[in-house]
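Q: Can I see a sequence and its folded structure?
A: Here is a first one.
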Amino acid sequence: MVNALGKLGIWAHPSLVSDELAQEVEKLGYGAIWLGGSPDADLSDVDRLLGVTDRVVVATGIVNMWKDDAAPVAESYHRIVGRHPGRFLLGVGIGHPEATKVYQKPYDKIVEYLDQLDEAGVPVEDRALAALGPKVLKLSAERSAGAHPYLTTPEHTRQAREILGEGKLLVPEHKVVLDTDPERARSIGRPRVENPYLHLTNYVSNLKRLGWTDEDLANGGSDRLVDALVLHGTAEQIADGVRAHWDAGADQVCIQVLNEDPLPVYRAVAEALLS
């Protein structure tokens, strides 16, 4: 069974997580490193980062079901937990339908994939499911350790906790920019929100369920939307945004730093939240 994740993690593409960065965030007290960008089935970066750290959990956020079959992913899971027991959480999901030409109902694909992970001996408690809508959130509670929502707000976290119930893992991702100039911070955050997420059906649908309007979603996103999806300001202001997720029921929040040099941001946020 995977170790406790702690209350704060980081989310980053594997190419942005050097061995040295992983070691530093572990020292700062972050409990998990979530690897985005649809890691390949061999999960070599998970092996790499676990090999240079001592305690931090490494999770995938997420292995894309359309891209990699369950069988090789399960083989990698067993290899990794054999070497590093208790330190790997397999996050899986369907990504977005625009990325695949294979037609299959997304929900059916998720169920089929989870069935295959069951058959391959990947324990329910060692896997998490990317989930935004109510149906998949419910499935994540039934078939995995819990949910890993992406591009969400504390209001979504509150709703997700109600669906998941107590005792199920809930780890939302949230983007951050350490910059006290709102316009400059938005100039960094808006492109990362718009491209590709405001052009993808599942994310747009989720934001509309949360009450955001077509006007908010147009032209790269309104200031109000960008401010909600990209925490910015001082380290303490960012920390307040993370605490809002905790108060809404998140077990851990994994921050995705959009500043060019993320390490000072990790340090500042850790000081604000973990010291």
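Q: Show me another, different protein.
A: A second, unrelated one:
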Amino acid sequence: MGIHAIYPGPNLSKRSLAHKIYPYLLRNVTAQYPNHIFGIDITYIRLTHGWMYLVAILDWFSRYVVSWELDQTLEMPFVLDAVDQAFMRGTPTIMNSDQGSHFTSPQYIQRLLKQNVQISMDGKCRAIDNIFTERLWRSIKYEEVYIHNYANPREARAGITAYLSHYNTTRPHQSLSYRTPAEVYHSKN
């Protein structure tokens, strides 16, 4: 009959009911310096046929993408790899995420606790609690992904790699007085 289901993309935010939820620590808190607050999230990247999944860790003070990983599955290792890479660059005081199963999993939580990172989680259905990372997703999708319509994972990886390099090092941000995230993140001030 030619009937096809159309849906907006995979649901990435379902949590395991057995996992602990941490409170949102950032109400009325503003990032004061690099590595003060990191936000982590996962989004899907549309391909011509299928999806890939992008996890990114963003420094809220500088808007610098500290680390990221792209994978064809939602298996846990790509999230843990991104966290490990981020901790090689810097350790935040607070790490904020949503309540998705990746971010409530014991493997993820143990990594943060081992580094003495305070754990903050968005309120249920509160995407605005992680607004800086949500804004990053908008930038990536409108300035890169939707323009290029990737045919395969190799094209997606090349495009995302180039875009995030541009985002960090050459794309000025109005909120940073027209400096780049890299300039602010690596500044000594």
